[in-house]
Design goal:
The protein has helices spanning 21-39, 55-64, 68-85, 99-114, 172-181, 189-200, 229-239, 266-280, 311-318, 320-330, 341-370, 383-393, 395-404, 408-429, 431-437, 439-460, 465-474, and strands spanning 5-9, 43-50, 92-95, 118-128, 133-135, 141-142, 148-149, 157-166, 186-187, 206-207, 209-210, 218-219, 222-227, 258-262, 288-291, 294-296, 337-339. It is an alpha/beta fold. It folds into three domains: 5-112 and 184-291, Rossmann fold; 118-166, no CATH class; 351-498, Isoleucyl-tRNA Synthetase, Domain 1 (Orthogonal Bundle), CATH 1.10.730.10. It binds ligand ME8. Residues 11-14, 22-23, 25-26, 51, 233-234, 236, 261-262, 264-265, 293-294, 301 line the site of ligand ME8. Belongs to the class-I aminoacyl-tRNA synthetase family. MetG type 2B subfamily. Keywords: Aminoacyl-tRNA synthetase, ATP-binding, Cytoplasm, Ligase, Nucleotide-binding, Protein biosynthesis. A motif ('KMSKS' region) lies at residues 300-304.
């Protein structure tokens, strides 16, 4: 039977600078979703990449004395490297400067034109180069320095140019019907409410081309114009699926199951993008899910404050798994969150080193010493044994439910509640005392503990792939058995299986000065 397709995307990032922790957060959360769905048996296509056109890229390149493409080449590679450093298992990395993408942009443009939704006009307004967007005068304010700025603080300038427009105003009712008919099209709920009130307040036609610079995809039939960077950027999602070749093998993945984005770009993904697709007669993505913003000890990150954190340094300092675990456990996915060194260390030492690492270490060393390094033989199971196994067996179902609303933190809470229960079980069964008094019962307790560790090891793979892999190695679980379908009675550890010598899966974090 063909496996169910699952297509998820990250935003394509601007490579006008190095990746920062915000980009890392989106990428590793998306990766956890992609890995989860693969382990749950889906045929996953996980897309990420870089958004390389636009005035901002051109200006940054000029300032650095580079061509825009040279700047994009250099920084796009850094994004790819970051994905590697954080174990982000993408299937395709798209760059908007690739020929396949130019073709897709021109094809969707022509379709929107054929639908009668594109016309030539002229545009004037307050434009922010940094946001690559026009703002209403009412949205801008003039600061004490005399500079007019948009709500997020970047300067705006008055721009007047001939421009193509997209008839967005014609899509208001269809968009509102979409949000009504598919209440989870935009999530979480706060974002949906914002989008609906924005659309209800009335949509103006959208300026979708520029003539003041040329670093972009040429408008078909009028190369004096380049496409507005957001038409170009959003189209990446269908380029990667093979558009306009609807016979392409990857077209089976479209429509995307979810576009994972940050809350700063909700409007582009849940208003403009579905309108473009409706116009072009292309199926809409199933969901758009916006996560919150990260703050450094509660402060907004900015280059001028000097608190922009380098994801490579974090992965180096704490370990990629540890950093991934922290970000996904600490911050409820969808809400804003904060991180700090102390919070990261507390999580690593409490949840990973103590709760999971120690339990594995203690129980598996007992197996090594007292059971000839083989999976012990379980005798009759007690109520306590059955109760713990039942909790662990239920994990795929409970985690799937949490994942259905992208509650990544809840998935982790569910798994760690089983880890906590396993610790309580191990402490109350006292296998180290049973060793002398009742070795057969000790073997049963060790088997139950190892079996629960197997199930936990499978379920934690989306979040901490390396440590989970190591744990499953210690339990001699075959690669093909490391899937959710093997959690439960079907996959039980077989008594007598030889196990490798136990070793620590999570070292405690020790401050360098104290080491
Ligand atoms: O917007 N906290 O690219 P971009 C959490 N190219 N996430 C953050 C963050 C923070 N402080 N800062 C950034 C673009 N992000 C466009 C996208 S898509 C068709 C085009 C994350 O490089 C978050 O996912 O500015 C946000 O949406 C994205 O980076 C913006 O990346």
């Amino acid at each position: 039977m063909a496996r169910e397709a699952y297509f998820l995307t990250t935003p394509i990032f601007y490579p006008n600078g190095a990746p920062h922790i915000g980009h890392a957060y989106t990428a590793l959360a998306s990766d956890a979703i992609a890995r989860f769905q693969r382990l749950d048996g889906k045929d996953v296509f996980f897309l990420t990449g870089t958004d390389e056109h636009g005035q901002k890229m051109q200006q940054t390149a000029n300032a650095e004395g580079l061509t825009p493409l040279a700047l994009a080449d250099r920084n796009s590679q850094r994004f790819r490297d970051m994905m590697g450093a954080l174990d982000v298992s993408y299937d395709d990395f798209i760059r908007t400067t690739e020929p396949r993408h130019t073709a897709a942009c021109q094809a969707i443009w022509r379709r929107m034109e054929e639908a009668g939704d594109i016309y030539l006009g002229s545009y004037s307004g307050w434009y922010s180069v940094r946001q690559e967007a026009y703002f209403d005068e009412s949205e801008t304010t003039v600061g004490p320095d005399g500079v007019r700025r948009e709500p997020l603080g970047s300067p705006v300038e008055w721009v007047e140019e001939e421009s193509y427009f997209f008839r967005l105003s014609a899509y208001q009712d269809r968009l509102l019907a979409l949000y009504e008919d598919q209440p989870d099209f935009v999530g979480p709920r706060e974002r949906r409410n914002e989008v609906m009130s924005f659309v209800r307040s009335g949509l103006k036609d959208l300026s979708i081309s520029r003539t003041t610079f040329d670093w972009g995809v040429p408008v078909p039939g009028n190369p004096k114009h380049v496409m507005y960077v957001w038409v170009d950027a959003l189209t990446n999602y269908i380029t990667a699926a093979g558009f306009p070749d609807e016979a392409a093998p990857r077209w089976r993945y479209w429509p995307a199951d979810v576009h994972v984005i940050g809350k700063d770009i909700v409007r582009f993904h849940s208003v403009y993008w579905p309108a473009f697709l409706m116009s072009a007669g292309i199926a809409l993505p199933k969901r758009v899910f916006a996560h919150g913003f990260l703050f450094n000890r509660g402060e907004k990150m900015s280059k001028s404050v000097g608190n922009v954190v380098d994801p490579f340094a974090l992965a180096d300092q704490y370990g990629a798994d540890q950093f991934r675990y922290f970000m996904l456990r600490e911050v409820p996915f969808g809400q804003d969150g904060s991180y700090s060194h102390d919070a990261i260390v507390t999580r690593i030492n409490a949840d990973l080193a103590n709760d999971l690492g120690n339990l594995a270490q203690r129980s598996l060393s007992m197996v090594a010493k007292n059971c000839e390094g083989r999976v012990p033989e379980a005798g009759a199971l007690t109520e306590a044994d059955e109760a713990l196994l039942a909790l662990a067996d239920a994990l795929p179902a409970t985690c799937r439910t949490a994942m259905a609303s992208f509650a990544l933190h809840t998935v982790l809470t569910e798994i760690w509640s089983v880890v906590a229960e396993a610790n309580r079980y191990f402490a109350s069964q006292e296998p180290w005392i049973l060793r002398k008094q009742d070795p057969a019962r000790m073997a049963t307790v060790l088997w139950v503990t190892a079996e629960v560790l197997r199930e936990v090891g499978i379920m934690t793979q989306p979040f901490i792939p390396n440590a989970s892999g190591k744990l499953l190695d210690l339990l001699a679980v075959a690669p093909e058995d490391r899937v959710f379908a093997r959690v439960g009675a079907e996959g039980r550890l077989a008594a007598g299986t030889a196990l490798p010598a136990p070793s620590a899966i999570f070292p405690r974090y020790v401050e360098p000065e104290a080491a």
